[in-house]
Design goal:
heterodimer; A: alpha/beta; eight-stranded mixed sheet; globular; B: 78 residues; four-stranded antiparallel sheet; two-stranded antiparallel sheet; 6 strands; 8% helix
Chain lengths: 421, 78
């Protein structure tokens, strides 16, 4: 069933009559029962299903998706991957993910275009440089690459950035992670879907989960728009709508749904060969140039709960103003597209991977800003959790009970205000 | 999105700041701080007109449609 992609296969396809290419995954109807049902065919759901099949030999797996593969945040992010976190629980987890990104194209036999172009966190004050030095040192102690760049080193690393340009918040240095960079986001969804389908996973699109059926303290299956599907284990990987799923199941979860916008300019010749992150007291922007030439950027959350997937104009203005302050030479470019995704924002800004209400129901969500870059690690760890019943050390800190026991992972120190996490 | 402030009339959302969801009635301290009722069709929220009259407001919104249903001053009868 799986076509093995290679340079030779590509050459043969190019010379053929266009009949080489096959659909990457099928369109199976949902069966009456599965061993594991994963709800949500985004990055996390597909990666979890893929690892359940590949690493744990589970045969009957379905991924049920309300709309279509990659409709949600896996196709709406700004494609940045990095592991430059301060807290050990976060940086070990995201480092595991970054290492998996490095080999993912080979593992999936699908080019996800991992580009280690570096992630540059710009500092605008001595205090920020001190905080970056501390964060970089914490990373290096964990064996993760981090470099503190002074003004001269930053000027050499990012020639497009004119440090002498007049700015309300001048840039004085940066923290660089060279192995950070970008990954082609849609290819991640398609690559995981293709690899999972090749292992026998049923990917069922247009199938909305509307309820959970339980008996004797265990979940027995899910009600869907295409009928009842029985399952021994159920995984909810619906980040953006985790709160709504909680309400559906009668659970109050430590999460709110907020909008995060992104936008891209018209394509231009190569200008920027790294990722810039510019946070200042009046706003923030993170910006990179796609392979097509567009400058992809994002910034802060819209600031209040929403499921609309339409960003507020005022936030778009904030982000663009920060981007132009950073790179004045892009001021004449036109924006090509703007879009928004629904974020699970948790009370400490860190993810939630745990059992959810019942022994055989699992939650993979609460991804806040960190969802895309976490996909490979999240899929592998969540699959192990579901298959063995024991959470691997890597994700034990993401348990739901941490709010009650006081073991919060508040990377930003913002407190239980999801709009500020 | 526009919000009709009871003092200032309809104003752009930029003038306001979302403060928090209204906690469920009778919720204990832990639940008030850390747990949320997320209804895609209805959201009861505290907002403040920070760049206007600075009054605290209670909004009844539909976060799926992005619409404000009702606005009242905090403390006023619903």
């Amino acid at each position: 069933m799986l076509q093995r992609y290679s340079a030779l296969a590509l050459a043969r396809a190019a010379l053929g009559r266009g009949d080489y290419w096959r659909p990457l995954w099928g369109r199976p109807a949902p069966e009456a029962a599965y061993d594991v049902v994963v709800v949500g065919a985004g990055g996390h759901g597909l990666a979890t299903a893929y690892h359940l099949a590949r690493d744990h030999g589970i045969k009957r797996i379905a991924v049920l998706e309300k709309r279509l593969v990659g409709y949600g945040n896996v196709g709406r992010n700004t494609t940045i991957v990095r592991s430059n976190y301060l807290l050990p629980e976060n940086h070990y987890f995201y480092e595991d993910s970054l290492r998996r990104w490095q080999t993912l194209s080979r593992d999936l036999n699908y080019n996800v275009m991992y580009s280690p172009r570096g992630v540059v966190d710009l500092a605008t004050s001595d205090d920020e440089m001190t905080a970056y030095a501390r964060r970089g040192n914490a990373m290096r102690l964990a064996g993760i690459d981090a470099e503190l760049l002074d003004r001269a080193a930053l000027a050499r690393f990012v020639p497009a950035l004119d440090l002498d340009a007049p700015r309300r918040f001048p840039i004085i240095g940066a923290l660089l992670q060279r192995r950070g960079g970008t990954v082609r986001h849609d290819a991640v969804a398609w690559g995981y879907a293709r690899a999972a389908a090749a292992l026998g996973v049923h990917i069922v699109e247009d199938c909305e989960v509307t309820g959970l059926r339980t008996a004797a303290g265990m979940a027995t299956g899910v009600e869907t728009s295409r009928g009842y599907v029985a399952a021994n284990r159920i995984v909810f990987a619906v980040a953006g709508h985790t709160g709504a799923i909680g309400t559906l199941l009668g659970l109050r979860l430590p999460v709110e749904t907020h909008l995060l916008q992104a936008m891209v300019t018209e394509p231009v010749k190569p200008l920027l060969d790294t990722v810039l992150v510019y946070m200042h007291p009046h706003g923030e922007v993170y910006l990179s140039q796609s392979d097509r030439g567009g400058l992809v950027m994002g910034g802060a959350l819209d600031g209040f709960p929403s499921y609309t997937r339409e960003g507020q104009w005022s936030r778009l203005e904030d982000v663009v103003q920060s981007a132009v302050a950073l790179l004045p030479q892009i001021g004449a470019l036109r924006l090509l597209r703007q879009w928004a995704g629904t974020n699970d924002q948790t009370m400490d800004g860190s993810p939630l991977i745990d059992r959810l209400g019942w022994d055989n129901v699992f939650l993979n969500g609460g991804w806040c800003y960190g969802g895309f870059k976490a996909i490979p690690a999240s899929g592998a760890a969540c699959a192990r959790f579901v298959a063995t019943g024991t959470a691997p050390d890597l994700i034990r800190a993401f348990r739901l009970s941490r709010f009650a026991t006081g073991h919060l992972l508040d990377e930003k120190g913002a407190g239980p205000f999801p709009a500020r996490q | 999105m526009r919000i009709s402030c009871p003092h200032c009339g309809p104003r752009h959302v930029e003038e306001f700041e979302f403060r928090s969801l209204v906690p469920a009635a009778g919720a204990a301290a832990f639940e008030r701080v850390y747990e949320r009722v997320n209804l895609p069709g209805q959201s009861l929220e505290y907002w403040q007109h920070v760049h206007g009259c600075r009054a605290w407001l209670v909004l009844d919104r539909d976060p799926s449609a992005g619409e404000v249903r009702t606005v009242r001053l905090l403390g006023a009868a619903p």
